Amino acid sequence: MIPEALMQFIIIHQKEIYLIVTLLLVAFLYGYVYHLYSSQRKGVKDYEKYANLALKDNLDDELIEPREVIHKQQNQ
After folding, report:
1. How much is the pTM?
2. C-alpha distances out from residue 53 to 5, 49, 50, 58, 64, Å
């Protein structure tokens, strides 16, 4: 269980802890959004293609990315 001293610390400083956790989560969210936009701008990945994945999910629909075929050499 949590020691009583730690529990008292959490109760006394819960506003500050909440604020710090919220700011960290906002920073991670903005960092992730920046990563998505910068990688799309650089041409690494086009994430807008993935937005249509839920709408175009039939077997006969066009592929989002070409499938990589790995040829294994068979030792015979």
Report:
1. 0.60
2. 51, 7, 5, 10, 8
Q: Give CA–CA dist 68/53, Å, rounded.
A: 19
pLDDT tens across the length of the chain (76 residues): 779 999 999 999 999 999 999 999 999 999 999 998 898 888 887 777 777 777 777 777 777 777 777 666 555 4
Place of tokens 């920073």: 27
Assess contact for 45 and 39: CB atoms under 8 A: yes
CA distance 72 to 76: 12
Phi, psi of 64 (to 5 degrees): -75, -45
Closest CA to 28 of 20, 39, 40: 20
CA 21 remoteness from chain centre: 18
